[in-house]
Amino acid sequence: MSNEKLLEQVAKVSAETAVKTALEYMEQKQLKEQKNRRDMRLRNTKLLLKHYRSFVLHSKDLQIELDELEVPDDVFEEMHSNELVVESIKRSKKRTLAMVKFIDQMLRVYKVLCEESGRDEEVRQYQTVYKLFIAEEKYSMDQVAECHNVVVRTVQRDTKDAVKTLSALIFGIDSIRFDS
Questions:
Q1: Are the beta carbons of 155 and 148 closer than 8 angstroms?
Q2: What pLDDT score was predicted for residue 161?
């Protein structure tokens, strides 16, 4: 074989190997990013549930506040952007109110799904999430375990499974697209 043909073959094999390696690297990187996005949605759902009671308290009289929120002219005289400040506050309050209403709606859907499943395990998962995050009286994991006559590990697993389902309800198809 001549040196030219040998060099061509080496170059061709090198190029194919480089392309294959680059594609594998990009695929692994993309899978890692997808997993991180899914994990973030689960963490976001847990965070929403963790702060749910605070959001509800904050939003109790929010609509009235939004309607009444007016800034007296003398309060922000020195600020040129007083309207922007008020609008920013209004937007934040509206987002909080909208999020509470949306979470309430998704919790109702989740409750119906669990009850209609006919599986005691799913009903227990809803009740676990309800007692831990939604009910006015806050329960500890130990108290929930005692209520359902299960161990704390079961309460943790029920919470994890419920959060996964709620993530699908809250974030839609994006929450399950990358699920493994």
A1: yes
A2: 94
Both tokens of 57, joined, read 């308290």
| Residue closest to 132 by CA, chosen among 124, 144, 147, 123 | 144
Structure tokens at 132: 């831990």
The gap from C-alpha 108 to its chain's centroid, in whole angstroms, comes to 17
Q: Tens of pLDDT along 30-79?
A: 887 776 665 565 568 888 899 888 888 877 766 666 555 554 555 445 45
Residue labelled with tokens 């890692």: 32
Instruction: Say which range, 23-27, 108-112, 123-127, has the weakest mean pLDDT.
Output: 23-27
148 contact partners, CB below 8 Å, separation of at least 6: 124, 127, 128, 154, 155
CA triple 157-120-179, angle to 5 deg: 45
Q: pTM for this structure? A: 0.62
CA distance 107 to 166: 8
Q: Which residues contact 62 (CB under 8 A, 6 or more apart)?
A: 93, 96, 97
Q: Of 83, 147, 177, 172, which is closest to residue 129 (Cα–Cα)?
A: 147
- State the Cα–Cα distance between residues 110 and 165, nearest whole angstrom: 8
Given phi > 0 = left and psi -120 to 50 = alpha, else beta, which region is 151? beta
CB 55 within 8 A of CB 134: no
Return the percentage of the chain with pLDDT > 70, whole number.
Answer: 76
